[in-house]
């Protein structure tokens, strides 16, 4: 064991840990390391920010909780179209909390500085534009638009109003993703050439069959308002309201809901503005509950050679009935290694592999098909040209970076948003970034339903051809 290695073990602190394999191994080789990342400490602010949440479903409650984890943030009001969620909001946040079923009532209030938009996807863009024009900072859940055609208008509204606008893909604020970006830019895996990213699930709740309340009826749901912007109107349907993600009229399927998480992280790490070509296939394999979007979808997306990165391809996959169980990953593959981001991006491992200097000879090779004399001549020549060191494949230990167990990227994402509201500092995920991540995902839906390749102009953010 080297002197440096002994010093490392002797001075082992809380910021770097070794796996049990490396601590028990008697071999004098480097083993895998786990490095615990530390989040930045934030100073408690004095300026109070008053917020309101529009849409108090799963994401609405979770976003509100994350927003209130930021010092100096106060919840003033909430909006939802189901009366039970308004009642629940008062149970959680106090009987004096202002509640309404019309988001415009919140936008008219002078004591609200910012709004969280966590409605069904079909309302994201309209509410965001209305809120910015009313002088409210906006935190919009992903995808920021329901339709690709809405993107440029929303970007323009932010430019015109100069209001703070951030999209809610928390991976962009994750300390693990920031470190992965740093390692990628430092050349840790060589030249990027492909990325594999996926979400697997195997449960009814994972497939969006959420619990429906016993009083979720037309008397307690503002159904008319919910579907007022839909092209085709339907009679009241509990599934369409409480499980809206399963319907194209209100949601964006697995592509808009989950692919967008994957692409947001990929674009953040690589600095990409987006792909050139998109093709997707899928099936409604198992959850045949009336939904009109697939429960298994795969996409192949091509990124061209740009000043930000070399050309690479991305494969995206979501499987809602996977025998692998709940598992997700993003593997960024380069010529000399892989950055493997597991789960929700709370950790990643760098696995490095480099070819030996020598090209190799023998084994699964045509060498054995030649005469013995020819084999000997070739081997002698090979050994003269390449030393034993040149013939060895380099061994490079894995390094895993992991956030602390109690880390929550959503809290950091809201902390970044609130800092922008207070100081005017640029947000970490603005409307342009959010649209460039969302549009290719929505194009996956277009490709699937139209059975064709979608060509995308990432610079000007529009479909071409």
TrEMBL record:
Transmembrane segments: none annotated. Keywords: Oxidoreductase. Residues 49-168 form the Gfo/Idh/MocA-like oxidoreductase N-terminal domain. It comes from the Bacteria. Residues 234-339 form the GFO/IDH/MocA-like oxidoreductase domain. It holds the Pfam family GFO_IDH_MocA. This is Gfo/Idh/MocA family oxidoreductase. It comes from Mucilaginibacter aquariorum. The lineage of its organism: Bacteria, Pseudomonadati, Bacteroidota, Sphingobacteriia, Sphingobacteriales.
């Amino acid at each position: 064991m080297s002197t440096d290695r002994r010093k490392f073990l002797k001075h082992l602190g809380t910021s770097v840990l070794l796996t049990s394999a490396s601590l028990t191994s008697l071999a004098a080789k480097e083993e895998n390391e786990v490095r615990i990342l530390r989040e930045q400490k934030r100073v408690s602010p004095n300026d109070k920010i008053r917020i309101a949440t529009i849409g108090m479903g799963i994401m609405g409650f979770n976003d509100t909780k994350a927003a209130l984890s930021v010092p100096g943030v106060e919840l003033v009001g909430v909006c939802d179209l189901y009366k039970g969620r308004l009642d629940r909001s008062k149970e959680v946040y106090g009987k004096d909390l202002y509640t309404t079923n019309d988001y415009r009532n919140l936008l008219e209030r002078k004591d609200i500085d910012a709004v969280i938009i966590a409605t069904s996807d079909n309302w994201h863009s309209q509410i965001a534009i209305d809120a910015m024009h009313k002088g409210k900072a906006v935190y919009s859940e992903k995808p920021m638009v329901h339709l690709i055609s809405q993107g440029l208008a929303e970007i323009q509204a932010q430019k015109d109003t100069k209001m703070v606008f951030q999209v809610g893909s928390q991976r962009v604020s994750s300390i693990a993703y920031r470190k992965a970006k740093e390692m990628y830019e430092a050349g840790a895996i060589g030249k990027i050439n492909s990325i594999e990213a996926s979400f697997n699930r195997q449960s009814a709740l994972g497939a969006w069959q959420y619990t429906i309340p016993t009083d979720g009826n037309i008397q307690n749901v503002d159904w008319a308002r919910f579907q007022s912007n839909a092209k085709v109107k339907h009679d009241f349907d509990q599934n369409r309201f409480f499980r809206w993600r399963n319907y194209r009229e209100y949601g964006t399927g697995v592509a808009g809901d989950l692919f967008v998480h994957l692409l947001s992280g990929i674009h953040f790490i690589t600095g990409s503005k987006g792909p050139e070509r998109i093709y997707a296939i899928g099936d409604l394999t198992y959850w045949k509950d009336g939904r009109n979007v697939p429960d298994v979808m795969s996409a192949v997306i091509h990124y061209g050679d740009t000043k930000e990165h070399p050309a690479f391809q991305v494969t995206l996959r979501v499987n809602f009935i996977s025998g692998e169980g709940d598992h997700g990953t993003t593997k960024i593959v380069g010529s000399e290694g892989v950055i493997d981001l597991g789960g929700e991006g709370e950790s990643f491992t760098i696995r490095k592999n480099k070819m030996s200097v020598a090209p190799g000879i023998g084994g699964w090779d045509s060498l054995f098909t030649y005469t013995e004399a020819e084999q000997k001549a070739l081997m002698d020549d090979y050994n003269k040209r390449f030393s034993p060191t040149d013939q060895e494949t380099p061994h490079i230990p894995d390094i895993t970076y992991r956030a602390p167990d109690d880390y929550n990227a959503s809290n950091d994402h809201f902390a970044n948003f609130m800092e922008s509201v207070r100081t005017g500092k640029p947000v970490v995920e603005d409307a342009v970034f959010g649209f460039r991540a969302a549009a290719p995902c929505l194009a996956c839906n277009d490709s699937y339903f139209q059975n064709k390749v979608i060509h995308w102009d990432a610079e000007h953010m529009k479909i071409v051809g």
